[in-house]
Amino acid sequence: MATHLGFLRAINLGATRVFPKDDIRRVTEGVGFDDVATHINTGNIRFETRMRSRAKIERTLERAYAVDRGFDVPTITFRADEFAALAAEALAVSDANPGLARHYVYLLKDELDADTVDRVEALAAPSGRMLVRGRAVHALLEPGYRDGAVDPLGAAKLLGVATNRNLGVVTTLAERWC
User: Taking the CA of residue 105 as centre, how many other CA atoms within 13 Å lie in the half-sphere pointing to its CB?
Assistant: First the structure.
């Protein structure tokens, strides 16, 4: 069995898209995944499975979550070794950019094509810049960016199915689960 990490998009943001972590765990176990754990109530999950296809894992979870919740729950998964490498790279990116006010990591369902990578990375502004690395896109925000802005550089619309976590959550999950 292989360990995978999953990231659920657009849950627990309002009264109509509620999906508590205990329910996420229950539904995930209900479709046959083992050793299921969650971290905080923002859609972070670890599980083991014999399935090898990322697409099949994501489809299985998305179908089960939709049936249970009554709304779509886009799900992005990584093998534990992939996520550990992503987290290590995120730390290296942060170290290479000292003084950031915030560092968010957008986790992508699919890698971006070369033209989209160029468009995303061209969004640089005094408030920050975007850096694409495979299925991770780093929002490197400088002091003075519009604090509290969800997408201060306007990149989210270019990323396809994605969800973001701050650097602290990414590194914590890698330490605990990888």
Answer: 25
Element of type H or E holding 103: strand 102-108
CA dist 56 → 20, 64, 73, 172 (Å): 24, 12, 15, 27
Q: Which residue intervals of the chain are DSSP H helices? A: 21-30, 54-69, 80-95, 114-121, 167-177
Structural domains for the chain? 2-79 (3.30.70.1280), 81-177 (3.30.70)
Cβ–Cβ under 8 Å, residues 38 and 45 = yes
pLDDT, tens digit, 9 for 90 and up, residues 111-168: 999 999 999 999 998 989 999 999 999 999 999 887 667 788 999 999 999 999 999 9
pTM above 0.85, yes or no: yes
Q: How many angstroms separate the Cα of 57 from the Cα of each of 67, 94, 132, 152? A: 16, 31, 24, 32
* DSSP 8-state secondary structure symbol assigned to residue 125: B
